[in-house]
Amino acid sequence: MLSELVYLLFFESASPDYSALFNVLPENFVVQQMPQLSLINTNAPVKTSQSLGPVVDAASVFAIDLQTSTPLFTKNIFSKRSIASITKLVTAMVILDNHTNLDEVVTVSANASNQEGSKMWLRNGEKMTIKSLLTGMMVASANDAAVALAEFDSTSEEAFAEKMNAKAQSLGLKQSHFTNAKGFDEPAHFSTAFDTMLFSRAATTYPFIRELALKKTAEVKSESGDVTHKLESTDLLLDNPYFKILGLKTGTTPLAGESVVSLAQLSNGREVLVVILGSPDRFKETKIMLEWIERNYKF
Length: 299
Prior knowledge:
By secondary structure, the protein is α+β, with helices and mostly antiparallel strands. The chain contains 10 helices and 11 strands. Helices cover 35% and strands 20% of the residues. A hairpin with a 3-residue loop joins strand 8 (244-253) and strand 9 (257-265). Helix 3 (88-98) runs parallel beside helix 6 (143-154), helix 5 packs antiparallel against helix 6 (143-154) and helix 6 packs across helix 7 (157-170). The two termini are 27 Å apart.
């Protein structure tokens, strides 16, 4: 008890950059005391078993009860990692913050249309609405759509990344930095499971992001109507028969490995968020986490 009081006094008096405390404070204590997350809630879930936790091989894992922001399971949540296309949640939030008219028309550049990796196959000079590009970016994880939106908003992807970092700062992210809108591996583009949880939680407050996250397939057209883009979700958990998965965002790159953030509704109706980073099988390990939470917590 005394040690916890000492930690708390140190934590609150220092007003620290949290990264400076990770080596001196117990991680569980940091999680519990951080202002973004709290266990001080009368409606918080209660662990009902002595289980130490599920066996998962993902490099980092973070699960919380969305209603109370109570941490349910943590593993290496403060380790800096590439997060791949999970980045696009931040991109989507910045676009939605800056543009209330989603029918605005974007002209796709050659740079955007030539992006590698997941794409919706936009054409150079093609005109698409913001809404259609957000749909492509969130459903099909389209890199060409992410770059087209970034260039439309800020002229260049580099300039847009500055807005992403401002958004990160406003959300209280301490261990994240973004250099591109799509999530490509770059030395200065990183986050942690803890910060990923924070911005993913924020993303769930955007109704349009929630709407798109649920879509297994979609179809959007260019403004001329001449080009149709058929989209298929990268989130295979949407077809899971055992859990009500409300989607959110997947990501895979060589450095990030298989990663996913999942919003799920438990059998009791409570929503939980699960971050899985660097997994050998992200969808299987998400299901393992959800099964463990159902068995070990009373809500």
